[in-house]
Amino acid sequence: MMDFQHEPGRYFLQKNDKTVAEITYTTINNGQTYAINATNVDPSLRGQGIAAKLLDTVVAEAHDKHMTIKAVCPYVKKAFANNPTKYQKIEYKP
């Protein structure tokens, strides 16, 4: 499991005091939905599934809080489109 740090609006991974991966989100829909705005992974770490683990971390938090997720960033939109069964219950549907 990755040792992601968390602060309001983002989960991230630091290496040598540098953020090397992060997923950022805001709260919308009267606090009932996380809108994931961006997912960034340092090129040296790409291909290791880190972005997916970041997404899964936010999905788990939203699930625990009975929230939904709106995919705004291209990576999350693609993940939701490619895995509809995995994300259909958590996806925000206005």
From TrEMBL:
Kindly give the InterPro entries that the UniProt entry links to this protein. Acyl_CoA_acyltransferase, Gcn5-rel_NAT, GNAT_dom, GNAT_YJDJ
Stretches assigned to the N-acetyltransferase domain: 1-94, 3-92
Classify the source by domain of life.
Answer: Bacteria
**Which named protein is this?**
N-acetyltransferase
Classification of source organism: Bacteria, Bacillati, Bacillota, Bacilli, Lactobacillales
